[in-house]
Amino acid sequence: MSHLLHRTANAVMPVAVGGRGIELIDAAGKHYIDASGGAAVSCLGHGHPAVREALHRQLDTLAYAHTAFFTTDIAERLADCLIAHAPAGLERAYLVSGGSEAVEAALKMARQYFVEKGQPRRRHVIARRQSFHGNTLAALAAGGNQWRRAAFLPLLIETHHIDPCFAYRFQAPGESGEDYAARAAQALEDKILELGPDEVIAFLAETVVGATAGAVPPVADYFRRIRAICDRYGVLLILDEVMCGMGRTGTLHACEQEGVVPDLMTVAKGLGGGYQPIGAVLLSAAIFEAFARGSGFFQHGHTYMGHAMAAAAALAVQETIVRDNLLANVVAMGDHLRERLEQRFANHAHIGDIRGRGLFHAIEFVADRSSKQPFDPALKLHAAVKREAMARGLMVYPMGGTIDGVQGDHILLAPPFIIERGQADAVVERLGDAVDSAIAGLPAG
Ligand code: PMP
């Protein structure tokens, strides 16, 4: 009997014993292509020698020093690296241990910023439906996934939600991309006006939506309009790039493709590539100055923030991405993967949408393509596809059920940036078989 509480209480999990390149290996010696990068984490794959070496070196130097007493050379170097490559305007990095911690810290920074500025009335956070920002309580409150939130509603702080920018599900028939971008962004202005412009702290959104909706890129101009609305009312823009950032979509930060710079940005997953738990908040000079000139500190902190081993892993991962020019491979292999997915699924009776950017793609399942009617959530098609894929030595990230009544099951692909053409072909081939087999296994009718 296992004494671990697994995600699914009675699950019998395969035991991972090794990893090499884009593959994980279980105790029975079976190899799995990690086409989901865990959950968009393992950007360099497994067992990368540069990261191993950096971690050994750091362990021999210093594993941990509490940030109330010391800074470390490695944390300073990581912050320098992050800011050197960040969009102009983001000037400080706050290092934490993961995505949820980064979102919590960003929300508290946004609130404290207005307290420092003498605007304590500002208290509302606006976020979007079909979003996920983490499982800690404030991040969960900000997220829009009802399934994840339901049991905890009495514990969640009030957060206000607007519809996301999600063309497949929300763009009206015949509506141009431009009109849709304007309409989707207008929802933010309407919500700000409803709540009172001087009472809103921030708008929080994933630049490309990840786990809940499945690799949903915004339509052109949506975020430029969002930025303008935030500026009009002095509301901070927080972009959550925990999943879509750090190169996943082909640029280091997904917001580069939108032509906007947020006031706060959260990153994690690909930052450390899974070699160590790490996340970060990148913040604007204005927010830093408000703390520096005001109370003198950001009223927050975690025991493991700025952990030297985590910083060493992240710095090695980020330096490797630059040295090996891996963002070019993300773009090239992203295009190739997309082409293959379209060849295999564009005419598939039960694939409604193929979407994404770079090495961040999803396919959404529908019972009926013309009405976009999802499958009955009780069938748990996404779980069946995951199971069938695992049987074929393929990891894909499943997400399912209808979300706020609009969405179908989907699976997410987020393979390591080192993936090669033949490996991408193998991913699509195995996925195609897994999908067909999962659908064939659904009860008739
Ligand atoms: N934000 C986004 C956009 C995420 O996708 C996730 C994790 N899936 C989180 C926050 C939370 O990150 P973590 O699981 O590292 O706490």
Automatic annotation (TrEMBL):
It comes from the Bacteria. One of its GO terms (molecular function) is transaminase activity. Pfam families: Aminotran_3. GO terms for biological process: L-arginine biosynthetic process. Keywords: Amino-acid biosynthesis, Aminotransferase, Arginine biosynthesis, Pyridoxal phosphate, Transferase. PANTHER family: AMINOTRANSFERASE, AMINOTRANSFERASE CLASS-III. Belongs to the class-III pyridoxal-phosphate-dependent aminotransferase family. This is Aspartate aminotransferase family protein. It comes from Labrys okinawensis. The lineage of its organism: Bacteria, Pseudomonadati, Pseudomonadota, Alphaproteobacteria, Hyphomicrobiales.
